[in-house]
């Protein structure tokens, strides 16, 4: 079929994997789970908790989805939320991708990795943010690392993996919060303040949820190096994100100078000029397009870099950020 033929063509010409959908299930309302395997059942590359796959949903449209189950060598399991404002990615996964289809996928990538030898751990998740957090919880339990898990959802119907968490060996260390029920909302400030010294925080979900968690850690005096997060959904207007004056970027390795017009991102401009750059979310939330800045002052508009990383001005996300100076020199 068309999906399979395109996937095979892409896999043959790019670094990545051609994987077959062997199972598709409803994990919760508007959340679908996909199990992917190599067509020849060969062993898949290993990954660590917090990793994701970049999936080419259809020609030219790639999206990132977190792996929710620890690696077993044969199957990758991802969860996909049908976004109400979908730009085609999640809707296509839900409506068009079926068992038997073959998709091009990247090898697992991880911008949200568990720190080695860090214990104890506090895991916070909201909505679809449970997918990488669940993988972390199952792995930490296997390793006998102490942790707490707090998971919030809008309703029981939208709470993926609720039964799994209630049956897990770490259920006594898990708290579920559902709007309209007795435990309707987590007091994140209280949860964070109750943690023992040295705890590392991993939080994933909508921006508002992450902002509250990070603020709670900051107010509790936590070192920023112990706060790790992955944002799902930036809720941004792409037009507003790329608004601003025109400028230019110089590519240090080739010496080329590329003009960046108002309303057009650096990444879009480079791709149009035949410069290969890797992008995915196009909203400044995934970190795929992070690029070193050698000269000039970026105008950071992403939700990925920390405040300190932005202040250093030595890297930027070229899918959304622009320039305060008339020229940027990039390590490209």
Largest sheet: 5 strands, parallel
CATH architecture of the largest domain: 3-Layer(aba) Sandwich
Low-confidence stretches: 1-13
* Helix count from the secondary structure assignment: 9
How many beta-strand segments?
18
Structural overview:
- There is one protein chain.
- The chain has 332 residues and is of the alpha/beta class.
- It folds into 3 domains: 2-105, Elongation Factor Tu (Ef-tu), domain 3 (Beta Barrel), CATH 2.40.30.10; 121-231, Nucleotide-binding domain of ferredoxin-NADP reductase (FNR) module (Rossmann fold), CATH 3.40.50; 238-330, Ubiquitin-like (UB roll).
- It is 23% helix and 29% strand.
- It has helices at 2-13, 89-95, 130-143, 162-167, 188-193, 207-219, 238-241, 266-272, 307-312, and strands at residues 17-28, 31-37, 52-58, 61-66, 76-81, 102-105, 121-126, 147-153, 174-178, 200-205, 227-231, 247-251, 257-260, 290-295, 298-299, 315-317, 322-323, 327-330.
- The strands form 5 sheets. Strands 9-8-7-10-11 form a 5-stranded parallel beta sheet, sandwiched between helices. It has a 5-stranded mixed beta sheet with strand order 13-12-18-14-16. It has a 4-stranded antiparallel beta sheet with strand order 5-2-1-6.
- It is globular.
Give the SSE map.
Layout: H1 2-13, E1 17-28, E2 31-37, E3 52-58, E4 61-66, E5 76-81, H2 89-95, E6 102-105, E7 121-126, H3 130-143, E8 147-153, H4 162-167, E9 174-178, H5 188-193, E10 200-205, H6 207-219, E11 227-231, H7 238-241, E12 247-251, E13 257-260, H8 266-272, E14 290-295, E15 298-299, H9 307-312, E16 315-317, E17 322-323, E18 327-330
Parallel strand pairs: 7-8, 7-10, 8-9, 10-11, 12-18
Antiparallel strand pairs: 1-2, 1-6, 2-5, 3-4, 12-13, 14-16, 14-18, 15-17
């Amino acid at each position: 079929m068309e999906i399979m033929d395109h996937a095979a063509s892409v896999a043959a010409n790019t670094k990545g994997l051609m994987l077959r959908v062997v199972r598709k299930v409803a994990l919760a309302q508007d959340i679908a789970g996909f199990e992917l395997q190599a067509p020849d059942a060969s062993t898949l590359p290993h990954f660590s908790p917090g990793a994701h796959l970049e999936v080419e949903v259809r020609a030219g449209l790639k999206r990132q989805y977190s792996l929710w189950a620890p690696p077993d060598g044969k199957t990758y399991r991802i969860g996909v939320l049908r976004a109400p404002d979908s730009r085609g990615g999640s809707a296509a996964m839900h409506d068009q991708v079926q068992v038997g289809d073959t998709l091009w996928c990247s090898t697992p990538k991880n911008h949200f990795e568990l720190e080695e030898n860090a214990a104890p751990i506090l895991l916070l998740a909201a909505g679809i943010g449970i997918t990488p957090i669940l993988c972390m919880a199952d792995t930490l339990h296997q390793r006998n690392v102490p942790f707490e898990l707090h998971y919030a959802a809008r309703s029981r119907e939208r709470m993926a993996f609720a039964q799994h968490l209630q049956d897990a060996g770490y259920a006594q260390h898990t708290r579920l919060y559902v709007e309209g029920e007795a435990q309707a909302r987590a007091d994140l400030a209280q949860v964070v303040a109750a943690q023992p010294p040295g705890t590392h925080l991993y939080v994933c979900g909508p921006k508002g949820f992450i902002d509250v968690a990070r603020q709670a850690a900051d107010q509790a005096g936590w070192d920023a190096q112990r706060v790790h997060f992955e944002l799902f959904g930036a809720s941004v207007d792409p037009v507003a994100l790329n608004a601003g004056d025109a400028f230019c970027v110089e590519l240090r390795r080739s010496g080329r100078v590329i003009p960046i017009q108002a309303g057009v991102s650096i990444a879009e401009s480079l791709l149009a000029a035949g410069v290969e750059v890797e992008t995915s979310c196009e909203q400044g939330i995934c970190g795929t397009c992070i690029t070193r800045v050698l000269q000039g002052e970026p105008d950071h508009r992403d939700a990925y870099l920390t405040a300190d990383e932005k202040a250093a001005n030595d890297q930027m996300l070229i899918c959304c950020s622009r320039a305060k100076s008339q020229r940027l020199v990039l390590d490209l």
